[in-house]
């Protein structure tokens, strides 16, 4: 739990009381590789903190093809936030891409605590601003303005994540076919 609290405190320092309450609603869970954590169409009920492993956040198109939107590595928070906020079924699934250990905490309880603990609300605001606005905005712009080759190079530069992904996951994330990915890799000699 120490790294979990440390990551939260990196956004906004929590009081000792808030830390104890948050620990009290949190539990640890293991997921095997390829295990579904949240299935598209289900209501998201938890937030997750990745202690170890790698999670994929994806949807499935009409042809049955997986389209990865994001990957969550160690020390990151993962959830179908829009499902939680709106109280609607998730448009995305979350899958363990490796054997993974997570800390999970119930969204409904957490959201009630936000209204009772100002420090927890400030954490949530800082987290959402950094990860769902500042970090995500360039990804959305790049998807519209960069070529698949440019996006591949950007992903390739994140060696820690890149080396953990399979080729079909990379192709899916880039929005291209495995054949197109092979051409890009050949052209770049990577």
Automatic annotation (TrEMBL):
Which superkingdom, per the lineage?
Bacteria
**Cyclic nucleotide-binding domain residues:** 28-131
SUPFAM superfamilies referenced in this protein's UniProt entry, alphabetically: cAMP-binding domain-like (SSF51206)
Supply the name of the protein. Crp/Fnr family transcriptional regulator
What is the organism of origin for this protein? Flavobacterium quisquiliarum
